[in-house]
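Quick start: what a row looks like.
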Amino acid sequence: MSPQFSDEDIVEEQVHFSNVVATFQQYAQHSARPSLTANNRRRKDLYTLPNADKALLDAIGYRRKLQAIDAAILANADFLHKIVANPEIFGHGIAGEDSGVEDVTVHFFSPMDGLFSGDDAPRAHIHSRDHSDDAKPTDPRKKGQARYKPTDFDMDKLRSTLKQFVRDWSEDGKAERDLCYEPIKNALEDYFEDSRQTIRVLVPGAGLGRLAYDVAKLGFACQGNEFSHYMLLSSYLILNKTESIGEHTIYPYIHSFSNIPCKDALLRPVKIPDVLPSDLPPGSDFSLVAGDFEEIYGAEDTDESEPHAGQWDAVLTCFFIDTAKNIVNYLRVIHRILAPGGVWINLGPLLWHFENNNSNDPSIELDLQEVKTLVRQMGFRLSDERTIETSYTSNDQSMLGYIYKAAFWKATKDADAV
């Protein structure tokens, strides 16, 4: 049995989904609105300068650069519109100002088989809105209510999504991707040397799905799990609707002029994807399920078609465990769903996402030593503990970069554990 959700929960989910779609749709308007856009603000600032100063800036091409940014904004907007061209595939009613909202259905989809829906869809779970989103949602059921206006936080999420495409699905992101994904994949291959098709691997916090895809490409049966609508909508386009390598071009670095060494670094186009996601070997088992990790995999009563307790041979977490409100329960769920002798492979920092949140969500924030002590107390045996230095969705041509000293480990569940 799947958990039951109240009408209020369902409506909130519908509203949030509709607002996320509206954010994608209004990227260009938001970027071009004179009161908000940084690019128009730059033009306004330019006009305040003395004529001599404007002439000097024109001579070095500053005004032409602003025009090029406008063109890049429109190119990004075109790509983002493709992502939400058919949002009804996810079962949510996308209502206009005077429309009602249809019943919600959360879908489970696979790039090999297309989208499962209706009675054929394994039941996923409704997830809560991001804790940092303080804006009140617009309810599309209310007639006459103005169209949702994306907040600055909404746009930050959208800009981050563009950079996530670089990390997961471009040649430009390969170096950063390899620092994180290769150690995880290598550890997985070393642990399971025999037949892989019977080995079930779960990737919580799958994002745009590249790590899960790569694991399936290695021959494992792999399922990704993701709750962010930004990620789910975007990954659907890449996994199910992309027909060629380099089909899309985006400009992910145009939103800030700070720490940019040259115009080419600012306006650098990035082509995605660098591989064809549908090009998996025949018989591959790769899927992505929408919903909250704890609700789906931690529920005591699960859908009979998809039991979880003791059914996963490996769990791979990359930049994930610090998304927990209660890390104790994250570890409990991971231990519970692993088969005896199964392995949990982790890489990531401890940037606790709910620390100092504004929504009164609980947040348990441990240091690395405390986390490892807790992992052992939960019944895991830690090995291959090390630190891996890596960036995350960074512009490798920027004059400023952040490096995480990410913790890596393998944690095995005792063979006689239950």
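That is the whole record. Residues 32-36, 93-137 have pLDDT under 50 and may be disordered. The longest strand covers residues 338-348.
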